[in-house]
Design a protein that fits this description.
Protein name: Helix-turn-helix domain-containing protein
Radius of gyration: 21 Å
Strand order of the largest sheet: 3-2-1-4-5-6
Number of strands: 6
Distance between the termini: 44 Å
Number of helices: 13
Structural class: alpha/beta
InterPro entries: Cro/C1-type_HTH, DUF5753, Lambda_DNA-bd_dom_sf
Largest sheet: 6 strands, mixed
Domain HTH cro/C1-type: 18-73
Pfam families: DUF5753, HTH_31
Length: 288
């Protein structure tokens, strides 16, 4: 989806512009909230792009910031209008990680570290059908089907001929050994992982058990990067009840350094393919 209609990215860019205007005016979020008789948390949510922004919000904020250039106001108002459009994922109903999907849809590259499972963009339907209810207990059958459909739809970014996603995944050996669903499902999943790793835009590396302690032991994370200079990189950390999005330069830098250490410690891409193929054979032998 192009950036000019991606609602998530539009909200994020608009929030950044509103924050810039506030800071240029020398005002705190609390001062702005007092002027508009709203909560400080609302101003913060508008600026971080996690909340839908109405044209009225933009008009009121531009008034507080004394923006006199009508072209700037009109541009921000149009961004607010665009940000209220719905992305393709909204057709599937309430998806808890819809903000992430919006960012992933626009990202130019994605670096993922996973310690326990195969990343969603590389999952087979069979693996997804087994892993989703395992990680989300008591999920209704219709919600399970929607999540599988969304996961398969997200994978289209990898093969998009106009705007392919550059995916780099570092996986702990546990993701290959844990039997999700059955040994047969795992064999099919790992065969698929080998196949996907041969695409020029996909790199998969494995951290074997004998690597020992490594930078990823504190938890899984993803780093999203964008073509447009106006969009800063984002570190995404998935949570049970809420997700964390880190955008400060220092935070992104720390996770980038962690990822570089993970890539350096992991097997090479070719060694990883051989390792995955061997693990797939083990599952095949176990399946009989």
């Amino acid at each position: 989806m192009a950036s000019n209609v991606n609602p998530t990215v539009r909200r994020r860019r608009l929030g950044q512009e509103l924050r810039r205007l506030r800071e240029a005016k020398g005002m705190t979020a609390e001062e702005v909230a007092d002027r508009l008789l709203v909560s400080q948390s609302k101003i913060s949510r508008l600026e971080n792009g996690r909340r839908s922004i109405s044209q009225r919000d933009v008009r009121d904020l531009c008034g507080v910031y004394e923006v006199e250039d009508h072209r700037i106001v009109d541009s921000l108002m149009q961004m607010a209008k665009d940000s209220r459009q719905q992305g393709w994922w909204h057709a599937f109903g309430d998806i808890p990680y819809s903000v992430y999907i919006g960012l992933e849809t626009e990202a130019a590259s994605l670096r993922v570290y996973e310690s326990l499972l195969v990343p969603g963009l590389l999952q087979t339907p069979g693996y997804a059908e087994a892993v989703i209810p395992g990680t989300v207990p008591e999920l209704a059958p219709d919600h399970l089907e929607k999540r599988i459909q969304v996961r398969m739809r997200r994978q289209e970014r990898i093969s998009d001929t106009e705007h392919p996603l550059r995916l780099w995944a570092v996986l702990d050996e546990s993701a290959l050994r844990r039997v999700v669903g059955s040994h047969l499902i795992m064999r099919e999943q790992l065969d698929h992982l080998v196949e996907m790793s041969q695409l020029p835009q996909v790199t998969v590396q494995i951290l074997p058990y004998d690597t020992g302690a490594h930078a990823g032991m504190s938890g899984t994370f993803s780093i999203l990067e964008f073509d447009d200079a106006a969009d800063s990189s984002v570190v995404y950390i998935e949570g049970v009840t809420s997700d964390l999005y880190l955008e400060k330069t220092n935070d992104v830098h720390k996770y980038t350094i962690m990822y570089e250490h993970l890539r350096a410690q992991a097997l090479s891409a070719e060694q990883s393919r051989e390792f995955i193929a061997s693990a797939a054979k083990s599952h095949a032998d176990a399946a009989g």
